Known about the structure:
Elements: H1 10-16, E1 25-26, H2 32-42, E2 54-60, H3 62-78, H4 84-91, E3 99-105, H5 115-135, E4 139-143, H6 151-157, E5 164-174
Antiparallel strand pairs: 1-5, 2-3, 3-5, 4-5
The protein binds flavin mononucleotide.
Amino acid sequence: MSQLNDTSSILALLHTRKSASAKAMGEPGPGPDQLAEILRCAVRVPDHGKLNPWRFIVFEGSARERFGAALRARWQELHPDHGESALSFVQGMLLRAPTVIAVVSTAADHPKIPVWEQVLSAGAVCQNMLLAATALGIGCQWNTDWIAYDTEVAKLMGLARHEKVAGLIYLGTPSAPLEDRPRPDPLALTTRWTG
Ligand SMILES: Cc1cc2nc3c(=O)[nH]c(=O)nc-3n(C[C@H](O)[C@H](O)[C@H](O)COP(=O)(O)O)c2cc1C
């Protein structure tokens, strides 16, 4: 599937973009140059105070297997009653795509810039990553799952106490057609302030 979304213009991409599914994603992933380009686009986001309140952890190759083994052990600890099928699913989560990027929000108290704004900037980073990958013809999905919220997994990723996973961006080649979903009518979400 060469053309995932309409990338003929920026507006066409914005009007049509939709995620691939990590459940149906395979090789190849982004090559080194494409990965570098995705990251360059990712950091080009509004960032009040120029704090760069985000960082990235790339999971590729056998690192995904080692991480998966640790996820499995953690899941077993959390859910000792779960059987092999649940454990192997957890173990294989990052193996579903050739490249997974954890976008880490490093938002911290600052004398002028609220933490909220720093966190929003991390969301913008995730979206830019999706747009860049889509423009390159690479399937992508922004996930979090339990992985983003477990304190032991955070330690495994090397996160500091104040850091949070904003997203796990799965990147690869979709093995199934992309499915769209109904989109809201923006006018129904919009009012005009009349005082
Ligand atoms: C912060 C965040 C976390 C998400 N986590 C998951 C997730 O763990 N699993 C999932 O299936 N979708 C998750 N999604 C939804 C998908 O990224 C995506 O929105 C959906 O698959 C299709 O929407 P799209 O085609 O507009 O991108 C998450 C979205 C956001 C913004």
